[in-house]
Amino acid sequence: MENTIKLIALDIDGVISKSKGAFYSGRIVKLLAEMNDKASADRSLPPVTVITGRPGTYVESLLQAIHGFAPAVFEHGTGLYNPKDYVFKAHPDLICLDELENLKKIINRTLVKRGQAIMQGGKDYSLSLFSRDKSITPRLKELILEAGGKLCGSFDIIYSSDSINIIPKGFHKGKGIDFLSRESGVPLEAILGVGDSEVDIPFMVKTGFSAAPSNAGDAVKKAALYCSDKSLAEGLEDILNHFSLIN
Questions:
Q1: What is d(CA 125, CA 75) in angstroms, rounded to the nearest whole number?
Q2: pTM for the predicted model, two decimal places
Q3: Residue 34 and residue 173: Cα distance in Å, rounded?
Q4: What is the dihedral of CA 171, 175, 177, 179, to 10 degrees?
């Protein structure tokens, strides 16, 4: 296959790592760092970056580990981090931050302090919640809507593989990959997107190349051009091999 991939955009949880709180594979971190070192020396090679729901500061840390120099998307497309000039940039279309802060206070006062949910820290443009009691997870969206009332009308409330995300309406990773394409100067058709959960589909269907590890959901596999028969970091390595990005 002729290599026309100019940028590799990876989801984190379920692709590079197993889940939140899980250890990274030293092998995959080393591999991605080596790829970025080669891409830095030879600009004909595609660098590796991430597109994730994680906070910007988390993305900054991960890019340091994998020697990333290309811009990266955080918080489901609401923000972009550029390691070259250390700039964390909100998407220009982003509004309703006052409503987000008010909703955060309400959720903290109700669901979090009552022990029904854990709020992921460090986010500026969205919220992510985890259930302390897994039996509550299916009802978590209902509880958020009940607590937030009319404020929730400004947001999309979406489940991912291990959390529920409260995102300003109209924002998703598809909008994020558009943002990344503009900021990096790499056209969408020259990007390889790799994801595992349904929140990744909006960006995977926009990239010229797409793939999923075996742990991905059925809908994600259907959206991907290539599906690995291996999971997580092993699946990612297989995907990179499939697209002739590593030897």
A1: 7
A2: 0.92
A3: 26
A4: -110
Instruction: Please name the residues in contact with 173: beta carbons below 8 A apart, sequence gap of 6 or more.
Output: 11, 51, 73, 76, 77, 195, 199, 200, 202, 203
Task: Find where tokens 């660098």 sit.
Answer: 47
Task: State how far the Cα of 94 lies from the Cα of 100, in Å rounded to an integer.
Answer: 11
The tens place of each residue's pLDDT in the chain, 247 residues long, gives 345 999 999 999 999 998 877 899 999 999 999 999 999 999 999 999 999 999 999 999 999 999 999 999 999 999 999 999 999 999 999 999 999 999 999 999 999 998 889 999 999 999 999 887 777 778 899 999 999 999 999 999 998 767 899 999 999 999 999 999 999 999 999 999 999 999 999 999 999 999 999 999 999 999 999 999 999 999 999 999 999 999 7
* Cα first-last separation, the chain: 13
Looking at this protein, which amino acid is placed at residue 187?
P
> SS3 for the chain, per residue?
CCCCCCEEEECCECCCECCCCCCCCHHHHHHHHHHHHHHHHCCCCCCEEEECCCCHHHHHHHHHHCCCCCCEEEHHHCEEEECCCCEEEECCCCCCHHHHHHHHHHHHHHHHCCCCEEECCCCCCCEEEEECCHHHHHHHHHHHHHHHHHHHHHEEEEECCCCEEEEECCCCHHHHHHHHHHHHCCCHHHEEEECCCHHHHHHHCCCCEEEECCCCCHHHHHHCCEECCCCHHHHHHHHHHHCCCCC
